[in-house]
């Protein structure tokens, strides 16, 4: 299968490192050098997750030049924090885009959701022989849930809003998906969550201030990730490459979700890659599961990848999910 068209929507508003420093009490140099945030988008009044997904999907469809009546499925990776609670977004996207009322799914693996959606897409193309094209689209605004006064969520100060989409086709040309890999770390299942607003702790007037992302056990989470995240990232990249029939030596470019600069450099070093073989999102922040699509779009525009390039993508989502993909840019 091939990614035939990509679309990205970013709000125009911006917040810079100085304001994040003021809100958090951190020195600005820490925000810039340790957290890797020079600036990031902020949402405007109309920038809701499903709406941003819709705008990005319009761009992906336009680039792919595929008639809308031939798009047989919609895989929505719009985040759980969205326009309305307890609401499915795949039907909304299909309705607003004028797509057929065929297959639709809402998928959620947090910041690894795009990797999971590619796996679902691969399965659909394998089992639905009449399926020619499908749309993966998502919107993200979890930065609304970050309290800059809570140092335990410092690793989420980079969360930023946006929309991104990919039109995926059975046939090329485009970015051909050659390998996928996925892993979970269930020991971190409860570490990051909004503690109120569900059935265990219903939202009440006195708990409104707790409706934000919290870390249950910061010390355990840090220790666990320090011990396991780098080897797991490396393992899923190697596994996806092996399925594709390649090794790390063949990789031309690796797209990595936004993380602190030291972790980004450490992963590239562990994989034997140079910084020139990647791209760092210090002016975009972390758009959750949309980072891989954003990186592909930026890498094409900046000439970091070109026809023939072997491209890796790697992401992780709290829960904890890890995923990787290997693609080659193939022209017709």
UniProtKB/TrEMBL annotation:
One of its GO terms (biological process) is fatty acid biosynthetic process. Keywords: Acyltransferase, Transferase. The keyword Acyltransferase applies. Residues 105-182 form the Beta-ketoacyl-[acyl-carrier-protein] synthase III N-terminal domain. Residues 241-329 form the Beta-ketoacyl-[acyl-carrier-protein] synthase III C-terminal domain. It holds the Pfam family ACP_syn_III. InterPro entries: ACP_syn_III_C (IPR013747), ACP_syn_III_N (IPR013751), Thiolase-like (IPR016039). SUPFAM superfamilies: Thiolase-like. One of its GO terms (molecular function) is 3-oxoacyl-[acyl-carrier-protein] synthase activity. The keyword Ligase does not apply. This is 3-oxoacyl-ACP synthase. It comes from Thermus filiformis.
């Amino acid at each position: 299968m091939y990614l035939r068209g990509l679309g990205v929507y970013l709000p125009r508003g911006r917040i810079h490192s100085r304001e994040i420093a003021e809100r958090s009490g951190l020195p600005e140099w820490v925000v810039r050098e340790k957290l890797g945030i020079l600036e990031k988008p902020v949402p405007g009044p109309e920038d809701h997750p499903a709406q941003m997904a819709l705008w990005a999907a319009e761009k992906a469809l336009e680039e792919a030049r595929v008639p809308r009546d031939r798009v047989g499925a919609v895989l929505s990776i719009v985040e759980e924090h969205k326009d309305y609670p307890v609401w499915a977004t795949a039907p909304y996207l299909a309705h607003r885009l004028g797509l057929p009322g065929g297959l639709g799914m809402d998928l959620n693996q947090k910041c690894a959701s795009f990797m999971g959606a590619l796996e679902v897409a691969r399965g659909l193309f394998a089992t639905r022989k009449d399926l020619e094209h499908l749309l993966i689209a998502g919107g993200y605004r979890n930065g609304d849930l970050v309290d800059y006064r809570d140092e335990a969520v410092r690793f989420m100060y980079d969360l930023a809003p946006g929309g991104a989409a990919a039109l995926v086709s059975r046939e090329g040309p485009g970015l051909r998906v050659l390998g996928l890999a996925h892993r979970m770390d269930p020991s971190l299942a409860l570490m990051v969550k909004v503690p109120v607003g569900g059935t265990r702790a219903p939202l009440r007037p006195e708990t409104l201030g707790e409706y934000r992302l919290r870390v249950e056990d910061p010390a355990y989470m840090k220790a666990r990730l320090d011990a396991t995240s780098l080897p797991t990232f490396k393992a899923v990249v190697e596994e996806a490459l092996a399925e594709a029939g390649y090794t790390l030596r063949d990789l031309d470019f690796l797209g990595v979700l936004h993380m602190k600069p030291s972790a980004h450099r450490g992963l590239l070093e562990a994989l034997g890659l140079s910084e020139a073989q990647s791209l760092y999102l210090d002016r975009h922040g972390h758009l959750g599961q949309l980072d891989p699509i954003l990186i592909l779009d930026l890498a094409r525009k900046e000439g970091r990848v070109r026809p023939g390039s072997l491209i890796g993508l790697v992401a992780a989502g709290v829960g904890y999910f890890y995923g990787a993909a290997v693609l080659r840019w193939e022209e017709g």
